[in-house]
Structures are given as C-alpha cells and as structure tokens.
Amino acid sequence: MLRSMLTPLILSIVVAFDAFSVCLGIGLRPLRLKKIATIGLWIGFFHMLIPLLGILIGSILIDRITHLAELLSGLLLFGIGAYFVFQTFAEQIRQAPPRTLTIPAIIMLALSVSIDSFPVGISLGMSGFQTTLAIALFGSVSMCAAWTSLLIAKKVQRNIDRSLTWISGAILCLIGLKIIFYS
C-alpha cells in the first residue's frame, strides 16, 4: 500500500511546486487571510479538476493502446519534466500578477498554475493509479503549498524571484525514466 501511495504523493508535491513558487511572488503584496484562503482553495480545486480530466482521458486511451501505455506514460512525464526545466531557465521576465486580486483573477491564476497537471493526469490514467487517492493528494498538497507560500511571503515581504519550476521538472523527468526503465 505504501508503494501505491508513494508515486501519487511525489507527483502531487511536484505539481504543487509551480503553485508554491507563483504564490510566493503574490504573497509579497499585502493580503488578508481571507484572500489567502480563497487563493489556496481555488488552486486546490483546479489541481483536482484538471488531473481528473487527464486521468479520465488517460484511462480511455489505455483501452486503445494497452501495449504502449507504460512507455507513453514515462515518456509523457519525462517530456513534461524537461519542458519545466527548459521553461524555467528560458524565462527572461516574469509577468507581475494583477494589482487587485479579484475572484476572476484568482480563478485565472489557479487555472494557469494547474494546467500543467493535465498531462500528468493523462499519464496517471494510462498507468492505472488509484484515481481518488491521486486526486485528493493533488488538491490537498497544492492547496497547502499555496497557503504555505502565501503565508511565508506575507511574513518575509521581500523580493523572492527564484522559480522552483525546474525542481518539479527534474523530479518529473526522474519519475518518467523510472516508469520507462523499471516497469
């Protein structure tokens, strides 16, 4: 059972890194605790919804391409990870978040930091992971990561401009290689 929980837990931490790093920057502005709670809830919601859609599509694909599922799953995770790494080091200027964080702005923020979990969800659906566990972990870990980074930044209130996306990309690459070579 521990083994079946470990990979979704690691993946949920990995996809939460993006939300964590983005929320560090957002938390540098003065935010009320109610706004912090709202941001975390929306990020958690989309980190459950987007991978769920990916898992559903991945499970449909598995019926059609059973013999290639593990290879495709590993390649997909590796590709996403490599993209994260290259994207992080290619960034020239990070765009500043909107001045006022209205609910539509928060929803767009949550959707933008959650969209990269869609292909991870496809990969999980093709690999046959426990959907309920994976989705619950994705949402709760991302929500807690967002809250943690917003609260840290609220306390620190200084410029933190390092993106942690490359770390999540490297971890995704390693998990992809594990699936490709050790499944």
Describe the model.
There is one protein chain. With 183 residues, this protein is mainly α. The chain has one domain. It is built from 7 helices and no strands. It has helices at residues 2-26, 33-64, 69-90, 103-114, 117-127, 131-156, 165-182. Helix 1 packs parallel to helix 6 (131-156) and helix 2 runs parallel beside helix 4. It is globular. The two termini are 17 Å apart. Residues 158-162 have low confidence and may be disordered.
Key phrases:
mainly alpha; 183 residues
SSE blueprint and pairings:
Blueprint: H1 2-26, H2 33-64, H3 69-90, H4 103-114, H5 117-127, H6 131-156, H7 165-182
What would a concise description of this structure say?
The chain has 7 helices and no strands.
Alpha carbon gap, first and last residue: 17 Å
Order of helices and strands: HHHHHHH
Strand count, sense and barrel status of the largest sheet are: none
- Gyration radius (Cα, Å) is 16 Å
The percent range for helix content is over 70%
- Share of residues in strands: under 5%
Mean pLDDT across all residues, rounded? 77
The number of strands is 0
Structural domain count = 1
Counted by DSSP, the helix tally is 7
Stretches where pLDDT is under 50 for at least 5 consecutive residues are 158-162
Q: Structural class of the helices, strands and pairings?
A: mainly alpha
- Global outline: globular
